[in-house]
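cron nightly-structures :: item 1 of 1
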Amino acid sequence: MKGMSASSVPKTSQRLLAEIGANAESPRWAEFVARYRPMMERFLATRFPSLAGEADDIVQETLVVLMTALPHYQYVPDENGAFHNYLTGIMCKKAIAALRGMAAERRRIDASQDAAEGAPDPGPSPAEDAEDLDEEAWRNAVFEIALKQLLADESIRESTKQVFVRIAVKGEKPADVARDFGIDRNVADQMKSRMTRKLSETVAALGGAPAP
């Protein structure tokens, strides 16, 4: 996305985490899963593309770990960082375990074929680099899901969506886009501004506090 990048992700609702942490049968678990699963899937696709066939299992295993861990998890952003860092940390551990399992299976097959060297253990990347990659992958996942939802909104005119995509997403010059659509440059800028605001609101709805 040339002309636009993912903005900072809003904080997760303390109330939502507290409620699902206190009750594994809480109906708000469905809300949590509906909100986070698409972003979890996009995160895994970005960070661990070779695990496409394992992504569903990794997401499910992560949710199981959360159900066990959340009753003891204290969500204090100023002290322990954003919740999504905790979430991606669990997913990364599950993903690395899956990669090691695949590598071990390859070594077993290679050994049976008298190929002594086998495949190397992928192991985790250096911690600092991995944290940066995790954060970027999560921001991009939230942004992509928000953009997809915005462009699927049938209440927004198709021409407005197209102008926004060409200027904000593809990075085309506003004057060129305005000329192609037969509108004034200022009108094109206004379309982009309105859509950008709606996109920010959609990102907030995905990562911010739910309605009471």
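cron nightly-structures :: done
The radius of gyration is 21 Å.
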